[in-house]
Amino acid sequence: MAGQSSNTKSLIVFDFDETIIDGTSIFDIMHLYPRAYYADTRNIDMTHGWNEKNTAMFASLKSHGIDIAALKKVVLDIPLVNGMEELLGYLQSSEHDAILISGANTLFIDWYLEDRKLQGVFQGVYTNFANIKDGKLVLRCFHHQDNCKRCVRSICKGQVLEEVVAKKKAEGTKYSKICYIGDGDNDLCPVLRLSKEDYVFPRAGYALEYRISKARQIAAQIVPWECASTITKTIKELSTR
Fold first, then answer.
1. Is 17 known to be catalytic?
2. Apex 131 CA angle, 75 and 53, nearest 5
3. Which of 4, 75, 142, 186 is 20 to 30 A from 23 via CA?
4. Active-site residue among 15, 97, 187, 198?
5. Which residues lie closer than 8 Å to 56 by C-beta, 6 or more apart?
6. Which tens digits make up the pLDDT trace of 56-88?
7. Does 191 have pLDDT greater than 80?
8. Could you tell me which residue, 85 or 30, shows the higher pLDDT?
9. Among this protein's residues, is 146 annotated catalytic?
10. How many beta carbons lie within 10 A of that of residue 35, not counting itself?
11. Cα torsion angle, 134, 136, 137, 141, sign
């Protein structure tokens, strides 16, 4: 996706759950259910999609006395992935642009970035919208799409990435390379859109690494990682070339 350019500025793209944070926020919140009612999470209607299911779950949690403060505590208690603080600190003081594309939601991500003083790292956050209504968390899709079968209807990460790159190019910024950092099934779509100048960093032992091993169309350089310091080292080395 990145084109040849004398500019050394790169675009660093992150997922959120299991990439920046060492957990999946929505699944950790499910554990707030009283044990006697935990099975309720399996009975929530999925007919209209994942966001609707989660909105219904948040309403159900409130009916069991679990408020927004409890949700926030769960999210903030999830640790950063090993080495991620170093990577984000480096990017905050570097010339590179960083964005976050996630299937989570604005509220969880805003809570976390603000708590960790990481808001300045990212030039853009692209995720599902969230707001609080009558003491309950309500989710809305980032966009509605049915063209990409690799992604959920609420957000196509590949489409978002292409739109960001095109917008920046129109504004005069052409990235020398894109570095994509992720872990899950829904990260394959943007990875398939990368070029040979780009890099993908799949978290070792997670779904994206497996998906990449089965795909034949991956043009980008592949650098698996267990500790995010591997990513920091690679990006620093690329910046000197």
1. yes
2. 75
3. 142
4. 15
5. 44, 45
6. 888 888 888 889 999 999 999 999 999 999 999
7. yes
8. 85
9. no
10. 7
11. negative
